[in-house]
Write a structure and sequence with these properties.
heterodimer; A: about 80 residues; mainly alpha; disordered N terminus; B: about 500 residues; Sodium/glucose cotransporter
Chain lengths: ~80, ~500
């Protein structure tokens, strides 16, 4: 069910991309900015992961999330 | 007290790199020597780099030796604010995905080599192009000097005389850059990146094990250094955002992008390059490990922390490998930066104002010589005034950010007025420089301002850019009121030229 949704979204995005406004993935690309540029959201020590403060492992997590997002947007637009 | 084993490993790796750099001249598609466009061959590797090579080149170019030394140094000295490098090199990639393919396409269509080439045609202004070229050049020079400074630090830690070593390093880089152009750092980047990945991965596994795990490491670090204090929030965020916007405005980043063979290569790399960011995050953690290990840098202050940590924790041959990785990590960006800076001089000053009808081969020759001179200038700079190199590089980051309206905004907004951009640039440059001189140097680029009545500490480049953009938009809107509709266009460029051609 999820993959069907995904390919339908992909087709729609492709059609949109060839047309005028391909906007929805812009929101996806905006997520890392929201997640990382508002430090009050994540500047704390707990909960720790393998002894590493939250502030730090949260940022590493966003590296992975952003790779997934940019990879996804690339696939979908191509 | 020379670390002989380290030095031997170091020298061997450097010789390998030198040979690769020279041999890369012969690496041309199909073996043909396309002499018709020697400038593109030398300056952009013939614009033929695929996904993998671009990944190595851009990664090797952006994640410089100085970055690898300064970031953990900042974490060691000042704590969590040093981690800004992580969000900075994360949020840059959605930007790359959107903006760089467009810029690449137009550069490819029109044979553009430098960002100033693009600005000249987009805004139909030789003057604005010259301003952009000068800004790019001025921002790049201290950055090259800092790469040499990175080499100096590791070489000094091995107990070897600094001046002689730097002169040898300069000669090596100057020669292979002169001969092979962008192909040299592209190939050497393979060696560099593999060596750095190995070094960092070994370090972040071995050292924590030795120190008893991350829990133990962070138990030794004062809590104030593990997270941001509320007054640091705005500085952290604006440093990250400002640096991300600036990164791909640097001529050497644009040069590496222009060397790609297609938009697709760039887009793929936007998804793949964050692997280096993950690595940079691990490198930043070395700063915390150094605190826990009680590292005392013998020289160079916080910048000496990572080399000192390696000397303390590793056997000499491993230290040699790690230091060679760092030094090669300086050589790749130094080479690309020298090429980029020299191209700016050749295309946007020499060819523009001195000899308009210069041939591509002659352009390449001028650029070759220019790259050697640029590297020589950086050498003199680092030998005589290294602390100025650091402060000038901070300033260069503020400066290059002011080229955003001309280089990026013009890709999206039609009705920008070239004079509004010039004035915006000027205001950004002056106010940014003033802010850095007043307060920014002392606080690593941050300045205290009054925003809506409350005091905030912001990155100088950020507020300078904000003022710049305000003027660009207000001025362009004003200009549009007073001039005819024909002004709203892409200068000499058409909408069509931005689109990727249909593939067969």
């Amino acid at each position: 069910m999820d993959s069907e949704q995904g390919s339908q979204n992909g087709e729609a995005a492709n059609q949109e991309a060839q047309g005028s406004g391909s906007r929805w993935w812009l929101l996806l690309l905006l997520l890392p900015y929201v997640g990382l540029l508002y430090p009050p959201l994540y500047s704390r020590i707990a909960p720790e992961l393998w002894g590493i403060p939250f502030f730090i492992w949260y940022q590493f997590l966003w590296v992975l999330i952003t790779v997934a997002i940019t990879g996804f947007v690339y696939k979908v637009r191509n | 007290m020379v670390l002989w084993l380290a030095l031997i490993v170091f020298i061997v790796l450097f010789v390998v790199v030198f040979v690769i750099g020279l041999l890369s001249y012969r690496w041309r598609a199909g073996g043909d020597e396309s002499a018709e466009d020697e400038m593109s061959e030398w300056g952009l590797g013939g614009r033929r780099f695929g996904t993998v090579i671009t990944w190595f080149l851009v990664g090797g170019d952006l994640y410089t030796a100085y970055t690898l030394i300064a970031v953990p140094g900042l974490v060691f000295g000042m704590g969590a604010i040093g981690m800004f490098a992580l969000p900075y090199t994360v949020i840059v990639y959605p930007l790359v995905l959107l903006v760089m393919p467009k810029l690449w396409q137009i550069a490819h269509n029109r044979g553009m080599v430098t960002p100033a080439d693009y600005v000249k045609e987009r805004f139909d202004s030789r003057f604005l192009a010259l301003l952009i070229a000068i800004t790019g050049f001025a921002a790049t020079m201290p950055y090259i000097a800092l790469q040499m400074y990175g080499i100096e630090i590791v070489v000094a830690m091995m107990g070897v005389p600094v001046t002689t070593s730097l002169i040898i390093a300069f000669a090596i880089v100057a020669v292979f850059t002169f001969v092979s152009g962008l192909r040299a750092p592209a190939l050497i980047a393979f060696v560099k990146d593999v060596a750095i990945y190995i070094t960092v991965l070994v370090a972040v596994v071995y050292i924590p094990i030795k120190l008893g795990g991350f829990g133990e490491i962070f138990a030794q670090v004062p809590q104030g250094k593990q997270v941001l204090a509320p007054p640091q929030y705005a500085g952290f965020a604006t440093l990250a955002l400002g640096s991300a916007l600036a990164l791909f405005l640097y001529p050497h980043a644009i040069t590496a992008i222009f060397g790609s063979s297609s938009q697709r290569v760039i887009r793929r790399n936007a998804a793949l390059l964050p692997a280096y960011t993950f690595l940079l995050g691990l490198v930043a953690l070395l700063g915390y490990m150094a605190i826990a290990a009680g590292t005392q840098p013998m020289a160079y202050g916080p910048d000496g922390v990572v080399p000192q940590l390696f000397v303390d924790q590793f056997a000499n041959p491993v230290v040699g490998f790690a230091f060679a990785a760092i030094a090669i990590g300086a050589v790749v960006p130094a080479s690309v930066m020298a090429i980029a800076a020299s191209n700016l001089f050749t295309r946007n000053f020499y060819q523009e104002f001195i000899r308009q009808d210069v041939s591509s081969t002659e352009e390449a020759t001028v650029s070759r010589i220019g790259s050697a001179i640029v590297l020589g200038g950086a050498l003199i700079f680092v030998l005589s005034a290294p602390s100025y190199a650091i402060t000038l590089q901070l300033l260069g980051g503020v400066w290059i950010l002011q080229t955003l309206p001309a280089v990026f905004l013009g890709l999206y907004v039609r009705w920008l007025d070239r004079w509004a951009i010039v004035v915006g640039w000027l205001v950004g440059m002056v106010w940014g420089t003033y802010g850095m001189v007043q307060e920014g140097y002392a606080q690593g680029g941050l300045d205290n301002v009054q925003l809506f009545g409350s005091p905030m500490t912001l990155y100088v480049g950020f507020y300078a850019l904000a003022a710049n953009l305000l003027i660009v938009f207000a001025g362009s809107a004003l200009a549009r009121l007073f001039t005819s509709q024909e002004q709203a266009s892409y200068g000499m460029l058409t909408e069509e030229e931005y689109k990727e051609p249909e593939h067969a």
